[in-house]
């Protein structure tokens, strides 16, 4: 259980880094005038997995950004966490499709199981707590 919590904490940090990166300037040269860093960027070795991760990231970020804030911290938390957790499931599925490391594939399966359980809990919570007008 402790390993799952650590893995989820790392995953959350990576998702946050992804969100920050999406707000970065269009190119590395924009970030540091006079320096062209684009040729130093690592090249993805598996374009298919990269595209799948990018699609999962975009879907998650879109889902989170379209949630209307209500002023109810509990509802706002759940409404943002559901697409965030769904993003984790989608990324884990990409790992299962393209990844080769047995430990990471096990982690991906654990992430899917944990996130699916938490998504179900949050959906049930929403059903039990209708939005107040």
Structure description:
This protein is mainly α and 133 residues long. The chain has a domain at 45-128. It contains five helices and no strands. Helix 3 (47-65) runs antiparallel to helix 4 (73-98) and helix 4 (73-98) packs antiparallel against helix 5. The longest helix has 27 residues, at 102-128. Residues 19-39 have low confidence and may be disordered.
Helix/strand-derived category reads mainly alpha
Shape, please?
elongated
Question: Biggest β-sheet: count, sense, barrel?
Answer: none
- Give average pLDDT, whole number: 79
Distance from N terminus to C terminus (CA atoms, Å) equals 39 Å
Radius of gyration using CA atoms only:
17 Å
Number of helices: 5
Order of SSEs, N→C? HHHHH
Q: Report the helical percentage.
A: over 70%
How many distinct beta strands? 0
Share in β-strands: under 5%
